[in-house]
Amino acid sequence: MTVLDSLVGMVVKKKVHMTLIDPAAQDPYKSGQIAKEAQRAGTDFFMVGGSTDIDGPHLTKCVGEMKKNSSRPVIIFPGSSSMICDNADAIYFMSLLNSSSSEFVVGHQARAAIPLNRMKIEKIPMGYIVVEPGMTVGKVGKANLVGKDDSRTALSYALAAQMFGMKLVYLEAGSGSPLHVPASMIRTVKESLSVPLIVGGGIRTRDSAREVASAGADIIVTGTVAEKAQDVFETLEPIIGAIHSQAD
Ligand code: 1GP
Question: Which of 43, 84, 230, 231 could form a disulfide with 19 if both were Cys (CB 3.0 to 4.6 A apart)?
Fold first, then answer.
């Protein structure tokens, strides 16, 4: 079964939690330890990546440690064409749809296409939409940020992604954002979208995770909260519990 099939199958049954690990934020050993504790806390999938450029060998080591310490699928969340490796289970073949630079819409993707085509790793086409405040990814990715009250523009990009044939849509407020994507925007997008909706950025508490999940996010991503935690298990367990207890 492909990673996408297992993800879509899971989304039909329950809300899904993904733990994002940024390989630039700590050494590979620590990434592995975070993965181990996040799995113990109930996370369903891992994403690995971020906006800070790292090279393939570093990414390979980080994924290796994550896989050594956990059994959940690892999906690369690349910030550039150099963030590819073949020991992860899948990679988002993603486009930052509201970037003002063609580099982030299709440039990095074209540069990565030939090496990726040689790799067996599963490619999952994903439309990535950055919402205010956007944080580092908004700046690095030269995003024309979707206003936090502009649900219609968010929906326009999400439907465009779906019509392009992308299998997932990701609404991103930016890693470390003080605010998560507003519930009203999530609701508007979810109402008209058929593919699974990922929401991430600024989700740090049980209550915010519950709000995002109940507004309609199928997949909820948290990153910073685990990387900053004294105790990853104690920090993630209530957040993941709140997500898993939400009915569709
Ligand atoms: C960033 O959406 C993810 O791409 C996670 O954000 O680090 O704020 O949890 P946080």
Answer: 43
